[in-house]
Design a protein that fits this description.
Layout (H helix, E strand, L loop, with lengths): L4 E5 L13 E7 L6 E8 L2 E9 L5 E6 L7 E7 L5 E6 L11 E6 L9 E8 L6 E8 L2 E9 L5 E8 L5 E3 L1
Antiparallel strand pairs: 1-2, 2-5, 3-4, 3-6, 6-7, 8-9, 9-12, 10-11, 10-13
């Protein structure tokens, strides 16, 4: 008799700073109709979820719970009252970390008497689903602000017109 086979599909997290999915899709095959089976998910060697069922065909699928990201997880299917079983290992990876926001400034064009110059502000660590406002100050005086909505790139270079010499602060 053929032992049951098992595979696990993990929907890995791609959202920076998000939460990994709390479930995995378990696909079983080589089942015998009418036989009793138990599927168990293990996380770090400890059982975390289990499903008992009677096969109504040669295949079955279950969404099964998980505690989250782990080092090594495994899943086992066992046909009751027999030695037949199958198992597989899988890994739920943690979500990528939130990138570190960075900001730096530099002088662009010089301010000529009675004219305007530029200040260049470079920002980094942006995520595509974020909305960012970059504000430029000269002391307590607001020089201007620019908003970046859902940036396609993790970095951006913004140019502000300035009319005075001095020490500027970008936030």
């Amino acid at each position: 008799q053929t032992p049951p086979s098992i595979s696990v599909t993990v929907d890995q997290c791609t959202v920076p700073g998000g939460e990994p999915s709390g479930t995995v899709l378990v696909t079983l095959s080589d089942l015998v109709r009418g036989k009793h089976y138990t599927v168990t998910i293990f996380s770090m060697g400890e059982p975390v979820s289990s499903e008992h069922f009677v096969a109504n065909g040669s295949t079955a699928q279950f969404d099964m719970g998980l505690p989250g990201a782990g080092d090594a997880d495994s899943a086992t299917v066992t046909q009751q009252w027999s030695e037949l079983s199958g198992s597989t290992e899988f890994q739920v990876l943690p979500c990528p970390p939130m990138p570190e926001l960075t900001i730096s400034g530099e002088a662009g064009q010089c301010v000529v008497p009675g004219g305007t110059g530029t200040a260049i502000v470079t920002v980094g660590g942006l995520v595509s689903d974020g909305v960012y406002t970059v504000t430029l100050w000269l002391g307590e005086e607001l020089v201007g602000s620019q908003t970046l909505e859902h940036p396609e790139d993790p970095g951006a270079v913004l140019t502000f017109d300035v009319t005075k010499l001095g020490d500027y602060t970008a936030e």
